[in-house]
Amino acid sequence: MSLKGFHIVFVTVSTLLCTFLALWSFLLAPEKSGIVTTLGIVGVLGALVMPAYGVCFYRKIVNHHI
User: Fold this and answer.
1) Residue 25: band (very low, low, confident or very high) from pLDDT cuts 50, 70, 90
2) pTM
3) What is the DSSP track for 12-28?
4) Does residue 43 contact residue 18 with C-beta atoms inside 8 Å?
5) What is residue 46's predicted lDDT score, i.e. its pLDDT?
6) How many CB atoms lie within 10 A of CB 35?
7) What is the Cα–Cα distance from 51 to 44, expressed in whole angstroms?
8) Are 50 and 15 in contact (CB under 8 A)?
9) How many domains does the chain have?
10) Which domain does 17 fall in, by range?
C-alpha cells in the first residue's frame, strides 16, 4: 500500500473513531460529566474536520500527480 493510500485509509478510520466517540459521549456514556461532554465535542469537531482534510489532501495529490 502506498503512502497516499495509507493516508486516505487513516483519515477514514480517524473519522469513524471520532464519530464513535461523539455517539458514545452523547448517547451511551454511563454518567454525564464535564469530561464526557468535552470528549463528545472533540469527537464532533474531529468528525467534521477530518473529512474536509481528506478532501483537501486528495485534491492536492490529484493536482500534483503523486
Assistant:
1) very high
2) 0.85
3) HHHHHHHHHHHHIIIII
4) yes
5) 97
6) 10
7) 12
8) yes
9) 1
10) 3-64
Map grid coordinates 451511551 to a residue.
28
SS3 (DSSP) at 1: coil
3-state secondary structure 32-65: CCHHHHHHHHHHHHHHHHHHHHHHHHHHHHHHHC
What pLDDT is stored for residue 62 in this prediction? 87
34 C-beta neighbours (distance < 10 Å), count: 7
- Would you tell me the crossing angle of helices 3-23 and 34-64 to the nearest 10 degrees? 160
pLDDT > 90? residue 34: yes
pLDDT more than 90, % of the chain: 79
CA 12, distance to chain mean position in Å, is 7
Distance of CA 28 to the CA centre of its chain: 19
